[in-house]
Amino acid sequence: MAAFLTRAPAVEPVSTGEAKEHLRVDGDDEDGLIARLVTTARRHLEGRTRRAFVDQGWRTTLDGWPADGIVVLRPAPLAAVEAVTVFDGEGTPHVVAAADYTVVVARMPGLVRSAGAVAGLAANGLEIDFSAGYGPAAADVPEPLRQAILMLVGHWFEHREAARIGAIAAPVALGVEALAAPYRVARL
Hints:
With 188 residues, the protein is of the alpha+beta class. Helices cover 28% and strands 27% of the residues. The strands form two sheets. The protein has a five-stranded antiparallel sheet, with no helix packed on it. A three-stranded antiparallel sheet has the order 3-7-6, with no helix packed on it. A hairpin with a 6-residue loop joins β6 and β7. The chain is elongated and about 60 Å long. The two termini are 14 Å apart. The model has no long low-confidence stretch (mean pLDDT 89).
């Protein structure tokens, strides 16, 4: 099973202006860098928590429905399943009717349950397109995750190199991990 980003979030959970306020930066000289740091921090934390923060589109592909008919969709939280498509042995796509599967968003992570198995699928013959995230706006993202982004941006802004000779490593990651830990989706 593989998951691919199909639609990036329209906004970041933290704006460049909010990050500049956190960094106490006046002026616009560093705006490009700060915006990149916000995006990188979001992506890093989304990977660590296995969640999508702001609504984004994803596609999961499999060779077919598992024996139990259940496909767990990551990243969480699942917002909606937009389409389920199966490809027959000839590679022809067939959109599965919504009545032929059940979507469960009220669990973490969400899932799709097939009403019945489909035979004769091609390799990667099942595609599930879905959206994941807390909502379309930055304000929809839980505040601890937004604060973790700001902490990473602050650390990376002040320490632009990977390491400094003679410096003692400071565990900024401990604070970030503590903020993100309650949101982490366990891997089973």
